[in-house]
Structures are given as structure tokens and as C-alpha cells.
Design brief:
Elements lengths: L6 E9 L3 H12 L4 E6 L4 E7 L5 E7 L24 E9 L2 H10 L7 E6 L2 E6 L14 E5 L15 E8 L3 H10 L7 E3 L8 E8 L2 E6 L3
Length: 221
């Protein structure tokens, strides 16, 4: 019998039509500035990063206009954004110690995370699940899965701006199915799943403590 995967919440993903727009959104919403990240050559994207505590961070990601378009759909639904799209908390990512086992466990529970891709940014290397169409799973409420191939976590090299996630919740009509999949992949972090209110779209909601107080990041922002 293979070992059961052990997983933890790894990072939030904020998508934007441009990286500058995404950074400005975080500055306006949280009152702090993400630090420069780097480029993802295979995806034609680039990012900025904000540490949210030990082993957890926020990624602002956008299409890199200076990079050639990839031969496949970009991740996190970036191909579906327009110039008028607003930056938003689009999805989240869970790290696991065995991504193959985690994908199998999630699929057995009824939600397939998609193919596993090898990725890199600078000296960082990892494996991550990316659906073939590039869209976030279950409206972004079901996370992508990642397995880092580094001796330390990327947050070890990020500046600490005094921010931390206090709570992360998901809202989706299939909340029970998502919760079951998270249990099957061995998620150790507490992320509550709920059915959305009448007329409310599926979404994530993160409550983030910053030096200027507590701020929500999600549908209402």
C-alpha cells in the first residue's frame, strides 16, 4: 500500500490583467506592497510575492507581455482575462509531500486536479497540477497541488512585512465534495468549506492580518 499524502496550504493566487494592476490591488486592499518575484518561462507569466507567515504566501500573477505565448493554456485562467478584468483572489495552492499520491486520492474522491507539470522559476523547481484548459478547479475553490523540489520553502527568502492569514474559507455548491477531496489528500491546514448564499457566486475568502489591521481578500473586495 502506498503512503497517504500529507498536505498543507501553501499559497493564495491573485490573478490580474497586468502585474502592475495586481500589485496595486494588493496595496489598496491590504496596505502592503508585494515584492518582485520572477518569470515562469514555460507559462509566459511573471509574479510578485507577499509572505503571509511561515510556509505560506500570496502570489500576484499575470501574463508577461515580454514573453512568447506558450503552446498550451496558461495556468490560473490567465488566458481568459481581458484588459478590463479586475484583479481577484482566483484560487489557492496546496503543497504535498507526494503529488502523485495526492492526485490519485483527489481523483478517487471525485475531483481530478489535472495533469502534473514540471515547472521552474530561477533556482526554484517544483511539480504542480494544471488542468488542460488552464482554468482553476471548481471555480478556484478546489486548490492546485504542488510539490517543491527545494531544500527550503520559498517563504524562507521572502521579506517579512508582518502579514499573516487568520482564516481561509471556500464557498461552492459542491462544498462537501471539495471538503472530502481535501481530506483525502491529507490536508493538515484548516480551510472551511461552505455552500454559498442564495445568488452568491463560488469564491474564496481570506482574512489577513496586516500592520494596519485585519483585511478581507476575496469576493467582496
Amino acid at each position: 500500500m502506498p503512503n497517504s499524502p500529507v498536505s498543507h496550504a501553501d499559497h493564495l493566487v491573485v490573478t490580474a490583467p497586468t502585474l502592475a494592476a495586481g500589485v496595486a490591488y494588493i496595496e489598496q486592499t491590504l496596505g502592503v506592497s508585494p515584492q518582485p518575484g520572477g518569470e515562469h518561462v514555460r507559462m509566459g507569466t511573471h509574479n510578485a510575492l507577499l509572505k503571509l507567515g511561515h510556509g505560506f504566501y500570496l502570489e500576484v500573477i499575470a501574463i508577461n507581455p515580454a514573453a512568447p505565448a506558450p503552446e498550451r493554456a496558461r495556468w490560473f485562467g490567465l488566458d481568459y482575462l481581458t484588459a478590463g478584468s479586475k484583479p481577484r483572489l482566483a484560487t489557492w495552492v496546496v503543497r504535498t509531500d507526494d503529488i502523485e499520491a495526492a492526485v490519485a486520492a483527489a481523483s478517487a474522491a471525485g475531483i481530478s486536479p489535472g495533469p502534473i507539470e514540471d515547472m521552474s522559476r530561477g533556482a526554484l523547481q517544483w511539480k504542480v497540477t494544471i488542468p488542460a484548459d488552464g482554468r482553476p478547479l471548481m471555480d478556484g475553490v478546489m486548490p492546485s497541488l504542488i510539490q517543491w523540489h527545494t531544500s527550503s520553502h520559498p517563504t524562507d527568502n521572502m521579506s517579512n512585512q508582518g502579514c499573516a492569514v487568520v482564516r481561509l474559507e471556500g464557498f461552492h455548491p459542491q462544498a462537501e465534495a471539495i471538503a472530502l477531496s481535501l481530506k483525502q489528500i491529507g490536508l493538515q491546514s484548516h480551510v472551511a468549506m461552505h455552500r454559498p448564499a442564495e445568488g452568491q457566486a463560488p469564491h474564496l475568502l481570506a482574512l489577513i492580518q496586516t500592520p494596519t489591521g485585519m483585511h478581507p481578500l476575496g469576493l467582496s473586495t
